[in-house]
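Final report, closing paragraph on structural work. Over the funding period we assembled a curated collection of sequence-structure pairs, and we close with a single example.
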Amino acid sequence: MKRKTCLYINFALDGNYGGGKFNETMLEMLRELFGEVESMTFPAGISKGKLLRNTLGGYLNGMDATFAQSVMRQLAAKRYDLAFLASSNFGKLAKAIKAAHPEVKVCVLFNNIELNFIKSQLSTGFKPQLLLTLAATYFSERNVARHADRLIVLNGREAGELLRIYGREADAIIPIILKDECAGAMPPATAAASGKARLTGMFVGSHFYANAHAVEWFARNVAPQLKDTEIEVVGKGFEAERRLQTGTMRIVGTVDSVAEHYAKADFVIAPIFKGAGMKVKVAEAMMYGKTVIGTPEAFEGYRDAGRYGVVCRTAADFIEAINGRAFTCGYNAAARACFLENYEYNSVKGKVARLLNF
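Its predicted structure, as stored:
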């Protein structure tokens, strides 16, 4: 049997943020499922001037015409069975691939409905450049919906929005997938931390608009009312928010590894009100066996949140939940079990294999 080949296309991966870790996991899975996988990436960090020119040309996330042309040359030089595009922002490229190489199957991963993600950004403050990005995003995702052979979304809400906005049904709903980084290193399934005099909570996430909004909202509306609790804010770039540090909230910022912070955390907060898709850090917290206290938006796409977490809609809900300690502190065996059953690499790999078995 001929070994199938795959060309993976994305911006340069950075596992220090949630989406980067998820994309790295997906790439690793493709390498297991295909006989050969080649990866082509472009740098996401470019100047604002280049970003504007690229957006005007219909390219997003740092992609440009030069990179798109290099992909087309690669496809012409070597036959691939599948082109896997790791973002719905690559719609112009998806259209070009299908026009020049109709025999190559194109699969696109929607990390979000990006159109809604940009609208959510606009809701936090008007920025004229986002209107151009909004238009380019719409045309990109429309091209994806029209030309890709397979579409993957992360949850039912995104599937519904894909159909509503672009008239295309998703071919599969595949949730956040992470490799288990804690196998063989978990503590006993106890909740002894509930008797501690002072608890340590933790917020994890890189410094982008939805997380920045969450931390500032929590600092202003919840943290001043907490008793015998300190919240650590850990994530790339959050040292820029040290102005929010108080007696109950400590801004840690960028760290080399989050593992030691998870190890000492009694619970994780996720006061997320903005964004789209699924929040990778919820799955990561569950992997470490931590109770997540979060909003409905934070748990979007996750099953049975009440088994391992606390759903809070208001500041008063967060204050009551944390001060009342009516949750599993320290190690939460139910959270860990739910992660292994639904979001761990091996539990999802078979579904991806069936989807991509052209």
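Residues 125 and 209 are 10 Å apart (CA to CA). The first helix runs from residue 18 to 33. We thank the funder for supporting this effort.
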